[in-house]
């Protein structure tokens, strides 16, 4: 594999990892930002969230849903090309559907939702366009780029 292909592979991995970080930070900030909503802290202290009782399995599910993007930050850098490409596409599509289904409740949530969907869309776009850096280019392509 030549140096240019190695650099391109590293750049794509770095881009994917950075986009997952952008997505994750938006989720975290969106959740933290909810604490300044009037009545939110009081509702949490009663043991409910949006009228639903806060239960252990709900907290576990929330933790798992955050752990996946956290893991993708690292996995985007470490996984080999094929597994990396498919993991990014599949998980980003899954998260776009989850983000849209959970929706937004107010203007700031809508703003974060747009940023999250944009980051996930760029992840999908980058992964789909990513070509295997270990494959040799046809001679005609090599001649054209020279």
Features:
146 residues, mainly alpha, two-stranded antiparallel ribbon, elongated, DUF6326, DoxX family protein
Structure report:
This protein has 146 residues and is mainly α. It has one domain. It contains six helices and two strands, in the order H-H-E-E-H-H-H-H. It has helices at residues 3-33, 40-45, 56-78, 81-102, 107-129, 139-145; strands spanning 48-49, 52-53. The protein has a two-stranded antiparallel sheet. Strand 1 (48-49) and strand 2 form a beta hairpin. Helix 3 (56-78) packs antiparallel against helix 4 and helix 4 packs antiparallel against helix 5. It starts with a helix and ends with a helix. The chain crosses the membrane at residues 54-74, 86-104, 110-128. InterPro entries: DUF6326. Keywords: Membrane, Transmembrane, Transmembrane helix.
Indicate the radius of gyration in whole angstroms. 20 Å
SSE class: mainly alpha
Question: How many domains?
Answer: 1
Can you list the strand order of the major beta sheet?
Answer: 1-2
Q: Tell me the series of helices and strands, N- to C-terminal.
A: HHEEHHHH
Question: In percent, how much strand structure appears in the residues?
Answer: under 5%
Helix content: over 70%
Mean pLDDT: 87
InterPro entries: DUF6326
Transmembrane segments: 54-74, 86-104, 110-128
Protein name: DoxX family protein
Organism: Acaryochloris marina (strain MBIC 11017)
